[in-house]
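Quick board copy: two proteins, each given as sequence then tokens.
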Amino acid sequence: MKDSKTVEIIPLLVGEQARQWAAAQAGSLGGSSCSEPLPSPVSDNSLEQSAEVAAVADLAEELRLENSVREIIALVRTSGDKGLATLAQRFKDPAPNTVTLDAAAKTALAARLPQATKAILDEAARRIRRFAEAVVAVAKPVAVDCGEYTAGFDFKPVARVACYIPAGRYPLPSTALMTAVTAQVAGVKDICIVSPCLKDEILYAGSLAGVTEFHEVGGAQAVAAVAYGTESIKSVDMIVGPGNAYVTEAKRQVYGKVGIDMLAGPSEVAIVADSGAKAEWLALDLLSQAEHDPNARSYLLTDNEALARSVAVLLVEKISALNLPDYIDIALASSAIVVLDSLEACIAAANNIAPEHLQLQVKDPEAIKSKLKNYGALFMGYNATVPYGDYAAGPNHTLPTNRAARFAGGLNPFTFLRGQSWLHLADTASELSKLTAGFADLEGLTAHAAAARARIV
């Protein structure tokens, strides 16, 4: 039986409902996100009809968004800065603005910011840089002696990158650090930042990665501006950083003209917990992701019903005690606390969800780690919490969402590196030429075969 007070805050699923929920996640492996409809005690026909109605509504919204973004991109492509100004007026945004952070401006910026703020950003940047440097250290050139020839593989950074920094509900200097510092460590020489609101914290965070070019423009129009260029904004080779649905759709539409890191959606966390986990910490961990966005998802997967019920009650208490956004109830209503039959079942559900963040709140996380296949970032141990990764532990917080962790990883130095292969033949290579000519004949490409045979000695 469910506690009537907690049902209003977050679904608490036990028994058959929990098993149905887990089965729904497994059934969505070829589908979209992990936000499947939660099981409810109504007929199968009603569930099917509800799902069909929801699918039609989702498709209509996707088409509306796609067309709206396409119009925005077209206006920026054809009208440049004038188009940006028109869109700013339409959306009641501040007029587009460019900030160049030269030495004098950087000194003035540092003087404006409180020392405590600078200390936080400095230390976070140091930790992010240290981790990124350790990762990129494995990107070493390869040269293979193949006898008649040498084959190799090099890593080269892209030339120019735009980091999109969200600032809708909150300015996010953490994202400025995560994107720009990582790009700098990868060797990117030309980095700019675009954001709908250039707070001093964002400017300072960018400066720690050597960024001097900032553009105060947001939304799909910012993506279009850096992808195609305007009179005041030079086009880039790659766009990275999360944003709202318009930003994400714009990145999808400009992909191919420029590179992108990923199509990031609302924040997600799945927590696998055993009886040793602290209910209070779990409640706070669920809330820490739910406060990001009304579409955020927080899942607790456990085999301990008493723990689950304690967390559900504590969520109510914490919401009352903390200064949380009004939409927290919306996020939690689409989240769930799920009591499954075993930790193995919890692990299977977590793999099917493929969450952005996965917390392993169990006694021996190392024993389970190898069983976890799909996640953006993993946080192991009772003391590990996602906010550590959001801000200052070092690993990047720009991560795949909407089950993209099945095939993609988070932002890292390799995001900005191009792998380039090469061949060097100092002399003729008869055996390679014969093999190549024979293969070309097999595929019916006569010019290929002739080019190879001409080099046979």
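And the next:
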Amino acid sequence: MYLTLRVFRLSFIIALIFQSSLAFGQQKEFINGRLINSKTKEPIPFATMRIKNKANGLISNFDGGFKIPIEFQKNENILEISSIGYQSREIILSSLSIGQINIIYLTEKVESLDEVVVTTSYKHKRPSAYKIVRLAIKKIPQNFPFTPFSYVGYYRDYQLKEGNYLNLNEALMEVFDSGFGFQDFKDTKIRIYQLKENSDFQRDTIATKPYDYVNRRKVIPYATMKAQGGNEYTILRLHNSIRNYNINTYDFIGRFDMDFIKRHKLRLAADTFIDGIPLFVIKISKAQGNFRVFGKIYISKKSFAIYKMEYAVYQKKGSVKKQETGIDIPSVEKKHLGKLLYEIVVEYQAYGEKMYPNYISFNNLFEILEPPKFIPIKAIINKETKNFELVFNNLPLVADAVKRGNYKLYYQGIKLKINKIEVKRHSVLLYPENKNVVFNEKLIQSIRSITDKGVAIEVKNVRDIYGNVVNKPKSILYNQFREFFVQQLKLKPIKPSDTLYMIKTKSIFQDQPIAAPKNLSNYWMNTPLKNR
């Protein structure tokens, strides 16, 4: 289950896309909202929202959107909102409107001098970034749970194409983690509560096909895949380098406890906060070949617990379009980094003296080759007029179609010179030299391949009237997301003794056992808002 780099080709764990086969609807009504930065007016992704004095909560979507069941408006319930780098807020849920998107603004929190002095024991000299990270890794056994716990959460996988959600699959599940002392893939058990193939969003059957590195119909640019034997969710978990700190995970992390520090450049940035807790912010960078790494790691200034890690790999070559990323990177710097290949964001939350999962998001780029829109559909040998007729599905552009250099004509394996070309609507007529030799009664028609007794026609660089080049497939870029958001943490879990656990070698959405609890209504799918 290792992610390795060979000859500057990235290799990281990736699950095959499986098409969902079963959907279970949720008959709930929701309050819809969106979190916005009060200064920049940009959406705030991955903010934590909790119902005060209750176990229920959720995480804002990539576009800052969220949805909460309307029953929580009862009894003056309060929504607590927190996000790293912002002042926490409390909102009375009854003040939010039903039937519209409620905009909630969060204000960036500015560090004060007093808070710096009282929260760090390094009063005279700040420790180096390397020393902070080294101590944070050393304290993982102290800061993270090594006893069993469980949590219920919302899983989803989807694709983004030009900012639009595609192929959205959703699930509610409970994860039973034996603790950081146990191997995650082997020992962690998952119960699926509910599945949904969301038909409210567009389904793109081409994008759901498995990766194809033989014909290059669907690939991850500049990357190779390794089969891991896991499904969408287990492979998402394997990209959590904190939970799997003592095994190899993905490029360029390797083994977090042994490789991370020596493989990366680390430097301190301005401190920040979460719920009033001051955090070191350490920038992560690396350059190797045409690849660039950028990220951040957020560490408590008091306990040295890791709160959050952002890690993105970019490919420097090629044009840079709008990038779908959850990392706060200035646009100028983002353009310099290049094309985003993949990104992992993982965050933990403090309960008592330990850190527990809050969410994980894994986003990778992939490329689809759509079939050519302009192709020859048949060829005809016209003995009477002594020409070869090539018929296209669209009208060819005459200026291209009459160029002899755009064709190669073979008879019995011998290349023939073309004397004249005529264009008649969808057809191009090729007149060879030595017509009387070529067109005789013994000619065997063969238009698909060169044989000892056949004819073959090759065509290139011819466009149709719409600008499509003959036989040229169109390359389309998508972003694939897999995400899990915790809604309820259980520090004293009761693990069922039955066998209704997820089969890790099968897709989440393929004939999995469903074990819905009696209190299923306490949880919900935080489906993205459609008007993104």
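Board note added afterward: Residues 129-138 form the longest helix (10 residues).
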